[in-house]
Amino acid sequence: MTRGIRAFLEARGHMEVETPYAVPTPGEEVHLHPFHTVRETPQGAQENLFLHTSPEFAMKRIVAATGLPVFQFARVWRNGEQSALHASEFTMLEWYHPDAGLDALMDETEALIKAVLPPRLEHTGPQLDQTLEIQSPFERLSMEDAFRRHAGVDLLPTEGNAAALAQAAGCTLRTEETWEDLFFRLLLERVEPAIGRTRPTFLTHWPASQAALARQDPADPRVALRFELYAAGVELANAFEELTDASEQRRRFQADRTARKALYPTRADWPMDEALLDALPHMPPCSGIALGFDRLVMLACGARRIQDVLWLSR
């Protein structure tokens, strides 16, 4: 599968790159916990480093410097993660395509999946037992339509108002549950089990508060140009039409830092990635995607646990 993916991306002009794993800034996702280490110089000076949770920041700097489409099979680390679908160390396939919008990236992702998986999978994964039709056209479903169809909720008018979302969903708001908390609870309990069952599904156009590193949609600022890909009950990938506004990205990073410090006050801190912020204005219009390679292998061979496809995992 590695050879097939590499051949597919290289045939489309993507250049393979490798970026550092131990970095001063591992990422800014609020709920991801990096592994911490210390680098010592021959002179005895010390510097805090972290194993990255994604190669995203470094790869964007390469795109900004070269304008080239790039990809990487990167080892990534996320502390405290272990389940049938999660491991603390795993492989992320990440690629960036300049001058490609979200629709073009979905086209490319669908073509890649079809190129490396058999046309039909009798999947017996942790979420469901189902025949997955890979060669059928993948479903493309906006978050708004997904919540309306599978949760009975008109989602976007409730954004930021947890009580309104709970009322619309006909559920009880838990103690100190925020709108974001409830959004993800409904996504997990009602939406995700209903999508990607017989053919893969792109879940697109996320609420603006969930933009992360994605641009807001110029046609509807309530949503971000982001998608996730689901197949047989498994989230395979997360993608953005990339934000290149450094001021807006700094504002989002600062909000993430404030939230992380409030939620996890004892966690180690790190400097903001100023090199990335300096590079963003030089990036061409671009879309990028992070795909869990081990999960894709799980689908291909019918594994029920990610540990079954990781050599010497424990």
What does this structure look like?
The structure is a single chain. With 314 residues, the protein is of the alpha+beta class. It has 9 helices and 14 strands. Strands 1, 5, 6, 9, 10, 11, 12, 13 and 14 form a 9-stranded mixed β-sheet that branches. The radius of gyration is 20 Å and the shape is globular. The two termini are 23 Å apart. The mean pLDDT is 94.
**Which parts are unreliable, with pLDDT below 50 for 5 consecutive residues or more?**
none
Order of helical and strand elements: HEEEEHEEHEEEHHHEEEEHHEH
The radius of gyration is 20 Å
Q: Major sheet: size, sense and barrel closure?
A: 9 strands, mixed
Query: What overall geometry do the principal axes of the alpha carbons give?
Result: globular
Number of DSSP E strands: 14
Number of helical elements: 9
Helix share bin: 25-40%
Mean of all residue-level pLDDT scores: 94
Cα distance spanning the termini: 23 Å
Give the structural class: alpha+beta
Q: What percent of residues are in strands?
A: 25-35%
Write the layout of secondary structure elements.
Elements: H1 2-11, E1 15-16, E2 22-23, E3 36-40, E4 46-51, H2 56-66, E5 70-77, E6 89-98, H3 102-116, E7 120-124, E8 129-133, E9 139-142, H4 143-150, H5 162-169, H6 179-191, E10 201-207, E11 216-217, E12 220-231, E13 234-241, H7 246-263, H8 274-279, E14 286-292, H9 293-301
Parallel strand pairs: 1-5, 9-10
Antiparallel strand pairs: 2-4, 3-4, 5-6, 6-14, 7-8, 10-12, 11-12, 12-13, 13-14
Helix pairs in contact: 5-6
